[in-house]
Amino acid sequence: MPPVTRGFTGRRRPASRDGQLPPGQHDVGGLWPVLTAEAEPHLREDQVELTVAGLVASPTTWTLAELRALPTSTYAGDIHCVTSWSKLGTRFTGVSLDVLLGAAGPLDEARHVVAESVTGYTTNLPLADVTGSRAWVVWDHEGRPLPPEHGGPLRLLVPHLYFWKSAKWVSRLELTAVDRPGFWERNGYHDRGDPWLEQRYQGDA
Ligand SMILES: Nc1nc2c(c(=O)[nH]1)N[C@H]1C(S)=C(S)[C@@H](COP(=O)(O)O)O[C@H]1N2
Ligand SMILES: [Mo]
Does the residue 155 lie in any domain? Predict the structure, then answer.
């Protein structure tokens, strides 16, 4: 069994609060809604690659097979969509971004990340939010391959932020010095999106 991260590191806010819901959220129970803004791509596993580039010492590309050969870890906890649904007690396995960033080597000037999907969907995150065992690229949900409608074969998972930050069919993580708002952020969603602070829209605390 890979190690399980509860999403709690030091003084940071935990992603999971043992069944408690962030403000304004409700639990969908056994359901898992699909939220996709673009046409769903259908990718064979042998087509999947992930590149970490931008302000890094060693821009690196991994195939899915190469990602699977890295040390894996499992997130066990909750996910929260800004449209108000939460799903408690999910379980995803993949590779921590700590491992990928450790290989690529962020430069000192790197402060932000833009996650890009093969479809062109983008979302921006503070670099600090994808370190400290709080972000993964995942291919496994509950012990099964991640279904295509949920971003399979490979998606980003940043469960302590609203789920729009977790780009499905992720193919590139670009480290930048300046913040570059992504698809939903340009359309009014919050830059960071902490569900416990209800950072839903631009202008929220
Ligand atoms: N490529 C891509 N990733 C995406 C989205 C999308 O439309 N396209 N939607 C986001 C939103 S708003 C949410 S809530 C989650 C939904 O993931 P799910 O469909 O697996 O529930 O994916 C996020 N990642
Ligand atoms: Mo969402």
Answer: yes
Q: How many domains does the chain have?
A: 1
**Amino acid symbol at 107:** L
CA distance 126 to 149: 26
Backbone angles phi, psi at 24, to 5 degrees: 80, 5
37-62 pLDDT per residue, tens: 999 999 999 999 999 999 999 999 99
Is residue 97, in this structure, part of any structural domain at all?
yes
| CATH code where residue 160 lies | 3.90.420.10
**Could you tell me the distance, in angstroms and rounded to a whole number, from the CA of residue 163 to the centre of ligand 2?**
5
Cα 186 to ligand 2 centre (Å) = 15
- Which residues fall within 8 angstroms of residue 145, CB to CB, at 6 or more apart? 139, 152, 153
Instruction: Give the Å distance between the CA of 34 and the centre of ligand 2.
Output: 9
Query: Both tokens of residue 162?
Result: 């609203």
User: Amino acid identity, residue 73?
Assistant: S
In whole angstroms, what is the distance from residue 132 CA to residue 125 CA? 14
Residue 28 in any domain: the answer is no
- Assess if residue 3 is contained within a domain: no
Q: Which residue minimizes the CA distance to atom 12 of ligand 1?
A: 164
Could you list the residue range(s) of the whole structural domain that residue 190 is in? 46-197
- The structure's pTM equals 0.93
Q: Which residues are near ligand 1 (CB < 6 Å)?
A: 32-38, 81, 117, 119, 121, 150-151, 163-164, 166-169
Tens digits of per-residue pLDDT, 103-123? Answer: 999 999 999 999 999 999 999
